[in-house]
Amino acid sequence: MPQVSTVLDLHPPSPPGVPLLLARLVDDAALFPPSKASVVDTVKAHLAARRAPNAGVIGFLICPISRLSALVSALRKARPVRPVALSLVADTGLGGLPKAVSTALDNAKLLDLRMIEVPAPSDVDSTWLVQLTEFVPDDVVRVVEPRRGRPEWLTGVRRVAEAGCWPKLRCGGSSVESFPTVDEVAEFLAITTSTGAPFKATAGLHHAVRYHDVTTGLTHHGLLNMLVGTAHAVAGDSAHDALRCTDASALAGEAGALSAETSRDVREVFACFGSVSLIDPLAELVRLGLLPNPERRRASRS
Fold first, then answer.
1. Cβ-based neighbour number of residue 292 at 10 Å
2. For the domain that residue 197 is a member of, what is the CATH number?
3. How far, in Å, are 48, 153, 192, 252 from residue 187 at the CA level?
4. Looking at the whole model, is its pTM more than 0.85?
5. Which of 57, 196, 199, 232 is an S-S bond match for 237, by CB 3.0 to 4.6 Å?
6. Domain range for residue 39?
């Protein structure tokens, strides 16, 4: 059985009402393309989302190291009630990590550094993983993205997991090559469930259910497909059918029927994913009945 990280608490934070399967699932990636939001606007939106009815779904604010100084300045002006849980993306290479980590720790009243995300070199060798460990505090989760598209990709995923880091799965982008196939996602899930390592997903999970965009010609993976597929993988079954499914009602029904124990097992594997929008994924989960409707909640109180 996978072992939950002691660093990332997957229990729903307040306000209550968010099911365990969705607690702290969505990390705020508004500081990354295709979002064009400024750092100031991103901070305002993130802090507002933290006060919203379904705030329990929201995880970390993700910031590239190249925009960290601007984030600190914006937070000083915003004066958050509590430090913002932060994931730093090393877009400047490992060499920029020590200074960035120091900056985050020096601003502990504004930032709570919880995660470091790093793109891996092509070979993901043990020497590089040891070097990464030296740069990152012990109580900060290390997320490493092996480069997909090479024959040794899955070997790199396993090596990352066995080194105590979280593998990262890029689920989409601007080209067909950016999207892993159903087979590749299923193989990735098989490795993470077998090693007991949580993973993080990024890019591409813009909607709850798998769909084909006729404008771009790209087929996108769905968030519910990933959650239900992970549930199948955790149970030792094939994830392929769940990953291919386009029946929103069936996926929502299966996700909603998962027991608390199974939901916990799923989230101990599929820890979180980054989204440039906090509105879209929450709205779809509300529409499918997996999250409380804020409007109905307000109406019941009036």
1. 17
2. 3.20.20.70
3. 38, 11, 9, 23
4. yes
5. 232
6. 20-205+271-279
